[in-house]
UniProtKB/TrEMBL annotation:
Keywords linked to the UniProt accession: Membrane, Transmembrane, Transmembrane helix
Protein name, per record: Bifunctional diguanylate cyclase/phosphodiesterase
Signal peptide from the UniProt entry: none
Residue ranges constituting the EAL domain according to the UniProt record: 22-274
Lineage top rank: taxon: Bacteria
Length: 277
């Protein structure tokens, strides 16, 4: 309900409704974060050439009044309500626990956790991550942090300090939603990053749209030149996978392989890939 005329915001009855919903969601989210009722699902990343599992992305889920609320709706609320810190620590701790389970069963996987822009300026970040890894008896290389390019470009100097510290710890850093932001490839090249993740909006049209294919090709070339890993997200079709594999993409993630799934289902999926089923 956004209607502005001559810079004056005109009152709309649905504004009250939107605001009421946002407030109700924020209150519910606070309870969920504090009571630890948020859950985490896992989406596999696999080698496009062999189908071998490489790791998984942890994605948070929230049921409010018996209905799932999409992360694209509640993550921005969590950021505004200063709940993103506790939410992230919950996801990180849960995901590291799962990762330790996989590795204990003989699957040498890594787990990726999304980091909101605000977290990059938290001076306690690196120390707390180090403690969490230690608690789960995991090497730092088992954790990948996904950070959007916009988060980095919002405060390149501050971000740089944090990224250097995380890199020093041995955590892998991934540029999420690659291609959707406004960063120059040259600036990214100077950061201690390990991986770029091509956004699904590019992957979706890779076979049909020359422009978006060009972005993907450029990312793949840059990555090769810089020794970075390239992950493609949102792979839904076999011809997308074929294209990506033929052009040197290192890992793919998407509904073609699996939707994000709860931990037990993920374990079943893992066992199936081991037996080649
Ligand atoms: P993202 O980090 O870009 O995550 C990828 C999103 O694409 C996920 O949506 C995933 O379910 C979806 N996806 C995966 N494969 C496919 C596919 O083949 N087709 C399509 N159409 N979609 C696919 P999800 O789980 O709804 O998350 C949306 C966004 O919310 C994430 O985008 C991320 O920015 C944010 N988010 C999710 N979990 C967390 C979290 O724990 N912490 C933070 N800070 N943000 C999170
Ligand atoms: Ca992500
Ligand atoms: Ca994305
Ligand atoms: Ca995102």
């Amino acid at each position: 309900a956004k209607d502005t005329r001559c810079g004056v915001r005109v009152y709309q009855p649905e504004d009250d409704h939107d605001t009421a919903r946002r407030l109700a969601l924020m209150a519910g989210l606070r309870v969920a974060v504090e009571s630890g009722t948020l859950t985490v699902v896992y989406q596999p990343k696999v080698d496009p050439a062999t189908g071998r599992p490489l790791g998984a992305e942890a994605l948070v889920r929230w049921q409010h009044d018996g209905r799932p609320v999409p992360p694209d709706e509640f993550i921005p609320l969590a950021e505004r309500a200063r709940l993103i810190g506790p939410l992230t620590w919950h996801v990180l701790d849960t995901a590291l626990g799962e990762c330790a389970t996989w590795r204990g069963l003989g699957h040498p996987l890594s787990v990726a956790v999304n980091l909101s822009p605000d977290m990059l300026t938290d001076p306690g970040l690196t120390g707390r991550i180090e403690q969490a890894l230690h608690r789960h008896d995991l090497p730092a290389g088992a954790l990948t942090l996904e950070i959007t390019e916009n988060a980095i470009m919002a405060d390149p100097t501050g971000a740089r300090r944090t990224l250097d510290a995380l890199h020093g710890l041995g955590v892998k850093l991934s540029i999420d939603d690659f291609g959707t932001g406004h960063s120059s490839l040259g600036r990214l090249a100077h950061l201690p990053i390990h991986e770029v993740k091509i956004d699904k909006s590019f992957v979706r049209h890779i076979v049909t749209d020359r422009t978006r294919r060009a972005v993907t090709d450029a990312a793949l070339q840059l990555a090769r030149a810089l020794d970075l890993t390239v992950v493609a997200e949102g792979v839904e079709e076999q011809d997308e996978l074929d294209y990506l594999r033929e052009h040197g993409c290192d890992a793919i993630q998407g509904y073609l392989i699996s939707k994000p799934i709860p931990p037990l289902e993920f374990l079943t999926w893992l066992e199936k890939t081991r037996t080649g089923g």
